[in-house]
Amino acid sequence: MGKNKIMFIVIISILMMTTPSFSMPTMGSGQNPPPVSKITGVTNTTSGPYEGRLRVYVVQPLSPWKDHRRDPYHFSLLDFPLVTVPPFFTQKWDEDISIGYLDTYSQTINWSGLATRKNVMVIVGVYDARSEIKYSYNDTGPFFAHNLDAAAGARPGETAFNTVNDNFTHTVIVDVATSTRCPYCPIMEDALYNLSKTGDYPFYFVNMITNRNRYASWFNANPSEGYNSFVVPEAYFDGGYEMLVGGDSDVNNYISRIQSCGKRDVHQLNLSLSVTPKGLCKLVISITIKNNEEVHYPLKPVEPYSPSDLLHLAPGEEYTVQSHTTDPDGDDVYYMFEYSTYGLDVITESGWFGPYHSGDVINTTYVWNETGSYYIRVRAKDVNNLEGPRSEPTYVNVE
After folding, report:
1. Contact 239, 144 (CB under 8 A)
2. Which of 2-6, 166-170, 322-326 has the highest mean pLDDT?
3. Which of these, 10, 85, 343, 375, has the minimum number of CB atoms within 10 Å of its CB?
């Protein structure tokens, strides 16, 4: 497999476990922009808000966890302060945000955890609410990729901003799926850490140590909210816009991907992050985001209602699934239901139903013939064929 070296992992993470179990057969191998306006050129448009997802990472610059060589990791994930953990496997890591043109979003988080003031850092990423299906490794491991629009990182007592300059439209984030048991992971760790120390490129990286941190394990295994990754090491640049698999020691392969992300046309946001220490192991995290870009969107249906989770279903039985949405200018709406396995490796589309009046509640039925875990997502488009965002996933358990 050349100079790239990877380890396959099988994740058997159990909800709320501190240290998940693994089976690992190995195989070798100027800060803020001015306001701007973009016009799409379509005739039926309106000025809409920025729709995004806010993700907050708490990391330890010098990790207590050591890699396969017994050297400490750097910038290892400690916590996702915004994570919500409803039943089963539908954790949500990000907070949905909506910001009108020239409006400002503010969020204050009181965080406490096992980290000293000298060895803790907060990294914030603002990701596009829109997504596309990407693949983690070798056309397998599909996941919903949300590209990054802005990022900042600060230690206690600091205020930081999203970096914008002639070469970078934003600060880049690199999420790394890694494991202390992986002999190839230190190669990627060394490359990213040494590159970050140069200060030549505005980026942060986060080591998600899947066999030491439950949130890292859940996030990397989750195909709907995370990366559906099953090999380590693997780096996800800007939410999956670029990826790199294996222990690659050539630093140019990391630089080229960071630069590729840095040239992306992103939504113009002013992002500032302040971290204030408050007593022992406590931080006040203050986030401010200003929407500096007016975008004229086609009038699309809003995100459809996500049905409630369906639990304890019997195989072979017919069940009713319900959803609804509205169209901003009252157009009739078509619906499509996507039924997928938990790993998104099989996705069955219902085809388009409709048209229905805006706001009408619609019902459809589906039969799951085998036991297992599944997802449902709902799509909607108007009579002008303008499609809005997918719904949040509904979890289905057939037993």
Report:
1. no
2. 166-170
3. 10
For 367, residues 6+ apart whose C-beta sits below 8 A from its C-beta are 316, 317, 318, 319
Q: Which residue has the tokens 């058997």?
A: 12
Taking the CA atoms of the chain, what radius of gyration do you get in angstroms? 22
Q: What is the pLDDT of residues 36-52, one digit of tens each?
A: 433 333 334 456 788 89
Q: What is the pLDDT of residues 172-205, one digit of tens each?
A: 999 999 999 999 999 999 999 999 999 999 999 9
pLDDT at 17: 31
Share of the chain above pLDDT 70, in %: 85
Distance (Å, whole) CA 314 – CA 24 = 33
State the CB neighbour count (10 A cutoff) for residue 272.
20
Q: How far apart are CA 384 and CA 244, in angstroms?
A: 39
3-state helix, strand, coil in the chain (%, to 5): 10, 45, 45
Compute the distance between CA of residue 386 and CA of residue 377 in angstroms, rounded to an integer. 18
Percent of the chain clearing pLDDT 90 (strictly above): 63
Side-by-side strand order, sheet with 269-277? 104-112, 282-291, 269-277, 158-161
Examine the pLDDT at 18 and tell me if it is beyond 60: no
Nearest to 208 by CA among 221, 196, 197: 221
CA dihedral in degrees (151, 91, 285, 103; nearest 10)? 60
Give the H/E segment covering residue 251: helix 251-262
Q: Mean pLDDT throughout 343-351?
A: 81
Residue-range domains of the chain with CATH? 6-295 (3.40.30.10), 299-398 (2.60.40.10)
Chain centroid to CA 138: how far? 20
370-374 contact pairs (CB < 8 A, 24+): 370/315, 370/398, 371/315, 371/398, 371/399, 372/341, 372/342, 372/398, 373/88, 373/89, 373/341, 373/342, 373/397, 373/398, 374/339, 374/340, 374/341, 374/342, 374/398
